[in-house]
Each structure stands twice: as C-alpha cells, then as structure tokens.
C-alpha cells in the first residue's frame, strides 16, 4: 500500500499546485468539445444539461465573506476539494426537499480569469421550505492557469461533464463520497485526506487529457 501511494505521488508530482488550484503553464488545449471550459480553454463548458428539481430555485451562486465567516447566517458546508462556492437555495413548496447536485456538475465562472469548478462526488442538500438556505460547497479546480476563487466571484450552474477521463475518475470515486446528515454535518471519509492527489489528477486530465492507468489504480484504493 505504501509503495502504491508513493508511486502515485511521484506520478502526480508533474502537476504542481499553487495555492491549491492555480499554476502557470504552457500546455495546449484539446480541441474536443467535451474539453471546453477545462484547462486553458475559455470556451463555455459543454455537457449534459442539469435541471433543478421542481420547487427549488437557486437565488445566487457566488463566494462571499458572509457565507464563509458570518455566524449569524446559517451556512452548511458540503463536498470535498479546494474549489469553493456558496449557493443560496429557495424551496418554494411547503415541505422539505432534497437537492442532489450530481458528480460531474460544473460551476462556470462569470469571469474568465477565475477558476471553473467541478464536483467529483454527488452532494445531497436538504432545503427547508420558504426561507433561503445557504450552502458552502467544495469541489475541484478545472483551470490551473486561473486565479483561485475569491470573495465577490460569481458563478453560473453549468452542465454535467461528458469528458471521458473525468467520467472515469468519477466512476472510480463512487461509494467514497462523504455523507451529510439532515443537520448538514459532514462525515469526512478517505477522500478528504487525499484532496491534493485528486486535484493533481484533475490537473492532468484538464491540461493533458490523460489519466495513467497506474494513477487510476491508486485512486481506486483510497
């Protein structure tokens, strides 16, 4: 197991993180449509359209200090990764509704200088009726040459990725996601301690379009 993890770290050392998500590089983009919005592409991400469940409205998708630090506003956190964004969800029905954000869902930055983000595992959120509910979500960065998310950055809800290598990574992580109970409390699993390795894997996919078989094998052992 130790040898496997050491080999994994060695393979991924080629993809270095700066401030967890950002780096400068000269790699070129793939021309495939599924790679739009990934790596160095400034094109809108493409993929499967995600539709919110009936009764749920997203009032805002941004990162702000209130969401992260103001204890007077109840903010629930969920997900794993270095990318972070706040969503405000409104349940327009009279009963609690579950909002499931699927693995592969992309958050598109409204500014091409700022990271797009992706969820590698599904996030399940319970939205109470009537009152707005705020959630601080964590995911992974898709653009190594862009700046990390900062307060004031705004996002749009993008599609679910159809990138073949990203789907392979997501498949390998099935069943490993953290569990969030009805009170919004996160139970940290094995993925939490392997966030950096996962971000480096995402970097390999978004910039080089590849994921070595040995890397995939190591990830399956998380």
Please supply descriptive tags for the structure shown above.
222 residues, alpha+beta, eight-stranded mixed sheet, 5 helices, 21% helix, disordered N terminus
Residues in helix, % = 10-25%
Shape: globular
- Strand and helix order: HEEHEEEEEEEEHEEHH
Tell me the total number of β-strands: 12
Average pLDDT for all residues: 80
Please mark out the parts with pLDDT under 50 across 5 or more consecutive residues, or reply none.
1-19, 23-31, 181-185
Distance between the termini: 10 Å
Structural class: alpha+beta
Strand content: 25-35%
Specify the number of helices: 5
Radius of gyration: 17 Å
Summarize the biggest pleated sheet. 8 strands, mixed
Sum this structure up briefly.
This protein has 222 residues and is an alpha+beta fold. It has helices at residues 2-12, 65-69, 164-172, 195-208, 213-219, and strands spanning 47-48, 56-62, 75-79, 83-91, 97-101, 105-109, 117-118, 123-127, 133-141, 155-161, 179-180, 186-187.
């Amino acid at each position: 197991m130790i040898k496997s993890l050491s080999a994994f770290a060695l393979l991924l050392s080629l993809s270095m993180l700066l401030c967890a998500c950002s780096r400068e590089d000269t790699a070129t983009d793939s021309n495939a449509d599924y790679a739009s919005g990934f790596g160095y592409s400034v094109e809108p991400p493409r993929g499967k359209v995600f539709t919110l469940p009936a009764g749920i409205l997203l009032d805002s998708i941004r990162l702000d200090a209130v969401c992260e630090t103001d204890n007077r506003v109840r903010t629930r956190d969920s997900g794993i990764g270095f990318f972070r964004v706040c969503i405000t969800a409104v349940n327009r029905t009279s009963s609690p509704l579950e909002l499931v954000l699927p693995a592969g869902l992309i958050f598109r930055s409204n500014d091409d200088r700022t990271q797009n983000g992706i969820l590698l595992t599904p996030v399940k959120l319970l939205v109470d009726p009537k009152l707005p509910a705020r959630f601080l979500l964590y995911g992974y960065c898709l653009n190594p040459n862009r700046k990390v998310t900062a307060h004031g950055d705004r996002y749009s809800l993008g599609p679910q990725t159809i990138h073949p290598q990203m789907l392979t990574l997501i498949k390998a992580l099935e069943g490993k996601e953290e569990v969030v109970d009805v009170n919004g409390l996160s139970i940290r699993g094995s993925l939490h301690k392997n966030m950096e390795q996962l971000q480096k894997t995402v970097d390999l996919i978004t910039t080089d379009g590849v994921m070595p078989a040995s890397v995939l094998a190591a990830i399956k052992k998380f």
